[in-house]
Queue: 3 jobs
Job 1
Amino acid sequence: MASYYGNESGRRTASGQRFNQHAMTAAHRTLPFGTKLRVTHGGRSVVVTINDRGPFIRGRVLDLSTGAARAIGLTGRGVGRVVAEVM
């Protein structure tokens, strides 16, 4: 399960980068920063880079930036089942 976030634009992520809600980035609890993932939802996919920690809500594995979520059509419901593959 994945969700998305974007209200934190401009703040520093756990990796030290400034968060850009339009960038193709994501948060994961344990994957190393810089890891690239292909995230697929509903037949659409996007490549994201892990640059933050989270999500901290039970049952969720990824927090996508707003731009990444929009690219795969996840913004309508806000949460959805995705397939994530390390590249």
Job 2
Amino acid sequence: MRIISGTLRGRRYSPPMKKWPTRPTTDIAKEALFNILQNRIDFDGKTMLDLFGGTATNTIEFISRGGGHATYVDRFGPARSYVKQLIDEYNIADQVALVKGDVFKFIKQADTSFDYIFADPPYALPRLSDLPNFIFDSSLIKSNSLVVIEHDQNNSFNSHPRFEDCRNYGQSFFSFFS
């Protein structure tokens, strides 16, 4: 995995993912996503929420591109431990909050809003189709927040009232909401 752009550009890292229940966003898909985001978000000082954060590839890319602060949420301990080491190594610990816990509980209890929300849930997550409603019915949303959910071809959010667009990069689909 690599950081594509920004202050940390070119750095590579390899999470010890053997037996991890995570599926990181590929570099090709992440690069395509951030090319779209670059045209929609002025990263400077913005806040991000990374739900089902896994290897934190999107969190780190966001901070590298000038994002002000990111909150990473995942319940898998080994992933959080690895991400903690990584953000310490990259000297960005003051810009990233690591949250241990269930994403749906976090959403329900959240009292902070974000400029950009990215969710990369397990593709077979039973409540995946409800995720946009959970997010938009919470206090996570600002008036101009952008929400992106990564999913596979078996999921579609086209009928959601806040749905804008869906982009496909290999096995990864990104649905955009605002």
Job 3
Amino acid sequence: MQLIGYLDSPFVRRVAISMQFLGIEYEHRELSIFRNFEEFRAINPTVKVPTLVLDNGLFLIDSTLIIDYLETQCAGRRLMPGDSEAYATALQYVGVAMVGMEKVAQIIYETTQRPVERQHAPWLERLRTQLGGALELMELIVAEQAGGGSRWLYGEQLTHADISLAVAWRFIQFTECVSFDPADFPALSSFSARAEALPQFQACPPTS
């Protein structure tokens, strides 16, 4: 299998780290949707990251769909809590983290792919408000977990909720077009730093 896309994308990185935890071997192919557009288009006409190319030549897109395939068809196990209520909350947490990633990506596209005079200030303000809301929820989620005394959100084993929250915060912190003080999100900052120190995260460093 080939995982295509740079690890500066949190969506690509989320898949790569999940594959590390699931013990799935893969080839990582760094192609940019901008610099390598035509080469990428020859593989996947939608030119979307992440793209997972299977050994039979089929390709999958969307990080959540890719992870679902990897867990159900390759690993035979899921990085999610088994209890139905915990499973639902984990999905909610993943969704909040994904919103944070998506809003930053939209801000990047608006501020880097449009001339300044054509950027729409009310739209950017709305995106930043949505991002701020996601960050407030992410901080609350992790702070409540810390108060419970467990190492991760659901005990001693990481789930996709943990991975997604940590990856989202790392992406937000190192994106130049948004600025948030880590001191305003102490629980989230500490949580993400602990996750980033793990070998599975270290094996997938963000690139540019």
